[in-house]
Amino acid sequence: MAEVLRVEKLEAGYGKFHVLFGVDIVVNSGEIVVLLGPNGAGKSTLLNSIVGMADVYSGRITLLGHDVTGKPPHEVMKLGVAYVMQSPNNFGTPNIFGELTVFENLIAASAGLSKKDVLKRVEEIYEIFPRLRELRDRKAKFLSGGERQMLAISLGLMKNPKLLMLDEPTAGLAPKLVSEFFSVIKDIRDKFGISILLVEQNAKKALEIGDRAYVLVTGRIRYSGDTKSIDEDRLAKLFLGQ
Ligand SMILES: Nc1ncnc2c1ncn2[C@@H]1O[C@H](COP(=O)(O)OP(=O)(O)OP(=O)(O)O)[C@@H](O)[C@H]1O
Ligand SMILES: [Mg+2]
Which residues does the UniProt record annotate as the domain ABC transporter (predicted)? Predict the structure, then answer.
C-alpha cells in the first residue's frame, strides 16, 4: 500500500511553546485515519505542522514521497493536500469566501483540475451535498453553520487532493447532520479515492468509518492501531492519561 503521509519523531509547537513530542503517524493510500484526543492535546497542531503552519523543531514529514519538513504552506498544498481547518481557529482564517456565492467559491478554490474537470467536480460535489446545489447562488456569508461546513469541505475537494485533512468537521452540527457528514466523509474516500486524516471529538462515529486510529494525549501518541481494536472505555482511560 502506497504511503501518502509519514510523520516521524515530530517535535513541534509555536515558538517556545512545545506541543508535540516524538509523534509518529502514517496515512496509507485510500485510508481514513482518525486522530482522537482531548482538548489541547495537539491534534490541530499536528495538522498545522504538516502544512507548515506550526514550528517544527525536529523530526521529518514526508508527503507523497517529498520531504516537506518546515516547508511553507503554499509549497505543501501544491503537492496535493487540502486542509479544512477547525472553525473558528486561532489564526483567524475563515475557511470560505463570504462575499462569493457557493458556486463562485467552488470555482475560485479549484486548483489541480483541468478546465473541463472543474465543472465535472462541481457536479460531483452537488451529488454528495445536494443542499449546495440548491444554495449555489447564495452568498457564502449567509450560509448556516452546517452549510458552511459542507462548503468548506467542498473547497478542499476542488483542489483534487491526494490527502484531505479535516479538523473537527462535525463540530457544532445538529445530531442528524453529524451522521450525514460521517457518511459523506466515507463517500469522499470511496468515490474519489482520496485518503483522509480526520480529527474528531465524536470518537464513536469516527471509529466506525475509520480504518486506523491514533490517540494523542498531551502531545504524545498513546494509541495507534486498528479502529476495531479500541473501544470507548479504553479511549476514556487514555484521555485521562491512564
Ligand atoms: N497559534 C498558536 N500559538 C500558540 N499556541 C497555540 C496555538 N495554537 C494552539 N496553541 C496551543 O497549543 C496547544 C495544543 O493546541 P491544539 O489546538 O493543537 O489542540 P487540539 O488537540 O487541537 O485541541 P481541540 O480539541 O480543543 O481543538 C494548546 O495548549 C494551545 O493553547
Ligand atoms: Mg483542534
Answer: 5-240
Strands 32-36 and 212-217: parallel
For residues 73 and 124, membership in a common domain is answered with no
Q: Counting ligands in written order, which one lies closest to the CA of residue 37?
A: 1
For the segment 28-50, what is each residue's pLDDT rounded down to a tens digit?
A: 999 999 999 999 999 999 999 99
Are 23 and 114 in a shared domain?
no
Q: Which domain holds residue 224?
A: 1-80+161-242
User: Which pLDDT tens digit goes with each residue over 81-118?
Assistant: 999 998 777 666 677 899 999 999 999 999 878 888 99
Q: Which CATH number characterizes residue 15's domain?
A: 3.40.50.300
Say how many domains are in the chain.
2
**Ligand 1, CB cutoff 6 Å, lining residues:** 14, 17, 19, 37, 39-45, 86, 90
User: What is the C-alpha separation between 43 and 47, in angstroms, rounded?
Assistant: 7
Closest residue CA from atom 2 of ligand 1: 14
Q: Does the structure show a pLDDT above 90 at 1? A: no
Q: Of 10, 55, 60, 5, which is closest to residue 33 (Cα–Cα)?
A: 5
Residue 200 CA to ligand 1 centre (angstroms): 15
Question: To test the ligand 1 pocket, which listed residue (14, 23, 45, 170) has its Cβ within 8 A of the most ligand atoms?
Answer: 45
Residue 86 located in a structural domain: no
Give the contacts of 201 (CB within 8 A, at least 6 positions apart): 168, 170, 171
Same domain, 127 and 98: yes
